[in-house]
Cytidine deaminase
Amino acid sequence: MTRSANETSHEEAPMADETLIERAARVRVNAHAPYSKFKVGCAIRSVEGNVFVGCNVENVAYPEGTCAEAGAIAAMIAAGDTRIAEVAVIADSPTPVPPCGGCRQKLAEFAEGDVAVTMATTGGLSERTQVAALLPGQFTAAHMSK
Ligand code: THU
């Protein structure tokens, strides 16, 4: 799809052969995290085949901050893609950081079936899991039908 010249996009131009975790690492440096000093980057590949990135954006009114995953999901939905195929999250932590509880619910909204989540540290450790495994017993639309 061609975008008009003045349309902004939250997709980042990929570098040759860049992995999803490399995309997450590249956006992580842009995080606004002056309060926690904990920068997080997230990259999502959509089922439609595009990659969207997000970083955490904190606020002096602490609860108003947003997670990296929420940013990447918002970018995907704003661009018109609808389903998550794969997720990568990276932080400068001693062990790979799993998405927080709220982000697990947000990811599950757009993840159907086997959706891999790679969690990595800037030091080179990584672990893989699945969105469904991160949110057992999840609340779904089926719970609202009588
Ligand atoms: N954070 C994320 O962006 N994603 C996660 O999965 C875990 C936590 C952010 C929120 C906050 O800005 C900082 O990390 C410390 O909790």
